[in-house]
Amino acid sequence: MPVPAKSASRRRLTQEELFPGARVVSLIIVALAALIAVAPLVYMVSLAFQSDAEVAGGRAVLWPEEIQWGNIARLFQAAPFGRFFLNSVLVAGLITCSHLLLAPVVAYAFAKFDFPGKSLMFILILSTMMIPFFVRMIPLYVWFSQIGWLDTYQGLVTPFLMSAFSIFLMRQFITGVPNELIEAGRVDGAGELRIYRSIVLPQTKPALVVLGLFTFVFQMNEFLWPLIVTKSNAMRTIPIGLSLFNRESFTLWNLTAMGSLMLFIPVCLLFVLTQRHIVQGIAMTGIK
């Protein structure tokens, strides 16, 4: 059936028809944004494999004339970098495991149970997000010095075992788990622990992956607390260990970049392995 001329004239114009070249402009903007985001990383890789002469030459070298593979060995010779790496992974791993174990349990209680003071308690937990860590830092340091936890793993890990953000993120996701599934489990005679383990946790896998990655990355890059709570090289993490390459009159930027690259590699691999779950978790958490 032919379309009337009047209806055809009212056809909604596409973006390309309204703004010729809009697609090209959009692609250019995206390409520029990607270049700005990737350029520092590319230069860090280049700097990590430059010679001392190129670093101290006074001009930016986009790519070294000869790749200095020996900088990897120099990194471990100049400082106990293997120990720094082990400390960072161990501390970040312990804190991440704590968040993944405790945050979903607390979030499940706030999302699916009613009890006196529930709203007030949740508001109080969220209010802790507005308290800067600097406010808690001095009391924590004094307390840990009194109980002998300075320069120890428990001193590095304890202040970050739980966070309001983790509880909030998991609560937002668990709220969207259908109540019918939980009620069906109760009708079948399952206890709350069985319901949590068999019904709720499998539904929250994407959110757990997002929470685990965010926590691990944040703790791998934590600088201030390890700086003030550690004294010996045996307990320092990578961000603190990189400061050892700062000299009185110059800085070994190639070794600093190599250490930063070693810090970036495990985080990048973790992101690549969990990318699908991360995108799904962020999308679903935002919708809920």
UniProtKB/TrEMBL annotation:
Domain of life the protein comes from: Bacteria
Location of the ABC transmembrane type-1 domain: 85-274
Chain segments annotated as transmembrane: 21-43, 84-110, 122-144, 156-174, 207-228, 252-274
Subcellular location: Cell membrane
CC annotations in GO: plasma membrane
Database matches in CDD domains: TM_PBP2
Keyword terms, alphabetized: Cell membrane, Membrane, Transmembrane, Transmembrane helix, Transport
Membrane topology: Multi-pass membrane protein
Annotated family: Belongs to the binding-protein-dependent transport system permease family.
Name of this protein: Carbohydrate ABC transporter permease
Protein's organism: Actinomyces bowdenii
